[in-house]
Amino acid sequence: MAQYSVLITSPPFHGDNTLRALQFIGGVIDSGSTIDNVFFYGDGVYHTNNLMLEAGGECFSFGEWKKLSEAHNVKLLVCITAAVKRGIVSEQEAINNGIASANLTAPFIQAGLGEFFTELHNCTRLVQF
Fold it and tell me: Does the keyword Metal-binding apply (predicted)?
């Protein structure tokens, strides 16, 4: 069975990439293969903003990623540099910078590119959306 890492670089509000990524991941899991991690990079970090609200009839990417993580124990890694540049901060960063609240919370985990590259050694395939 194959082990996949998924790289998300497109924002959640741009086309149907979110739905295609989620459908692909569902198919991988249904086939018996595994998704080791999803890494959000560049504008893909917008998926992890917990201040995004569900809009009627649209894919609620934050909620869908959270459900995926909880149901299948998939690690959701977020590039810390890309996130901070886009105003997505963890609790520790909020405290350190005097920001009222964090908008990056579990199940999303901050990670650097080095950690992502280390994770790639455990998988057999990388797919980008």
Answer: no
